Amino acid sequence: MRLFPSLYGWVSERLDVTPLVYLVKKKSVPAHRHSLWYYTGGMTLFFFGVQVATGILLLLYYRPSAEAAYESVQFIMTEVKFGWLIRSLHSWSANLMIGAIFVHMFSAFFMKAYRKPRELTWFSGAFLLFLSLAFGFSGYLLPWNKLAYFATKVGTDIASQVPVLGHSILVFLRGGEEVSGATLTRFFGFHVAILPAAATFLLLLHLLLVQVQGMSVPPALEKNPNAKSIPFFPNFLLRDLLGWLLALLLLVVLASIFPWELGEKADPLAPAPAGIKPEWYFVFMFQTLKLLPAEIWFIPGELAGIAAFTLGGVLLFLVPLLDKNPTGRWGRWISRLGWMVAAYIVAFTILGYLWPAAK
Amino acid sequence: MASEGTEKKTRREFLNFILGGGFTALFGAVFYPVLRFVMPPAKSEAFGGSVSAARIGELPPNSGKIFPLGESPGLLVHTAEGEYKAFSAVCTHLSCTVQYRPDLGHIWCACHNGHYDLTGKNVAGPPPRPLTEYPVTLSGDNVIVSPSRGA
């Protein structure tokens, strides 16, 4: 007896699955010289899946308190069988996921994939980018080590610069006036409950929109009468799988050769160590704040910097509404601006790593 | 009949008002406690008393020590001249914990390279304000810092 056809028959007698089968059969992906970028979203999805799986495993041993967090991660790294692998995979995959998101975001940006009717896909994607940064920021504190402790102090202090509501935001984030065990408990809650719930919802929306609207083709290639495409199933999916396999290989190699460090346990009565840095995807902002003078005109330098980055985030979110005429002069200027922003991010990230720690 | 129509409309409006008001009240009754719940209760207000920051002789001249000042850290400096000085150790820039640099002879924040002199004044880097200085007294064997007395 063949299991699959009889199972299929059993289900289809109860639930009409033909529309789903039709969708899978009909779905195709445009093939052109920029098609490679279509795989970046799937790559991000793969890393997200690794995060969910390894994150759930880490939950079996992790303890979210100032007294036990560091020790529990130490236990995972030294005592639990393959604990070092699971935690290193979680850390490496987190970083590769953020990297994949940036590539995915910039490729969608330069191919103008956000133009009508795909504005909602861009909005949900931008939200997912912000959520991923929040995931990274909250997860960074959880091992309760020195670097994370001070990165969290600085990061939450930045939030307190918001006019009027700043102090309330700071107290809300820290669970008090200072970064303490209360902050750790909160960040744990954000990291494993609130952010995953929000991300799952937005991710489903994002994927649904992509399925309904199909892949966007860059404006320059859109009018091509000889446009080619390949079936999604199995051609595109198999290529996706190959990419995921390579990504898994890269992850395992990185996690095995460079297991993630734990560092020293956080001590609220120790001075900030020299050369502290946030995670690499915040370094360009950190470096900017470091170089700003105490006052720009009459505004405090840090406030000016933070306001500029907030504005940048808002503009990024609103790109589909700002780029009214993607193929016109204005649209070309928006692309140039995008290149400048990308160059700024790369330059200041490199500068952040080369800058001498102490002077 | 016209009057009945008007009456019906008024009744509909009344019911909508009650329903809308009821939902608004429900919304408030649900979210007000949630909002209050997520804001942690204030601990006993800013640390008031005095604290023994170090023992005399514990710190050689030209060195510093972080000590707990209520919930936040304080910095005690024993200057090269043999004087004790105490400050809030919270950098006025982005609230990292500062430290005394014996090689520079002044206070330094590692996070964004901020410098303060030994009166707490911000002299270089991004810090926008001086560190708060606290009065120090020597009592028996102890170096006592008293934030409540102001500086």
Polypeptide structure, described:
Chain A has a domain at 25-213 and 229-275: Cytochrome Bc1 Complex, Chain C. Chain A is built from 14 helices and four strands. Chain A has helices spanning 3-14, 18-26, 39-59, 69-78, 83-110, 119-141, 146-159, 166-174, 181-213, 219-222, 232-257, 280-291, 301-322, 329-354, and strands at residues 28-31, 228-231, 295-296, 299-300. The longest helix of chain A has 33 residues, at 181-213. The model of chain A has no long low-confidence stretch (mean pLDDT 91). In chain B, the strands form three sheets. A four-stranded antiparallel sheet of chain B has the order 2-3-4-9, with no helix packed on it. A four-stranded antiparallel sheet of chain B has the order 5-6-7-8, with no helix packed on it. In chain B, strands 1-11-10 form a three-stranded antiparallel sheet, with no helix packed on it. Chain B folds into two domains: 1-41; 51-145, 3-layer Sandwich (Rieske Iron-sulfur Protein), CATH 2.102.10. The mean pLDDT of chain B is 86. Chain B is of the alpha+beta class and 151 residues long. In chain B, strand 10 (136-139) and strand 11 (142-145) form a beta hairpin. Classes of the chains: A mainly alpha (359), B alpha+beta (151). At the A-B interface, helix 7 and helix 8 of A face strand 2 of B.
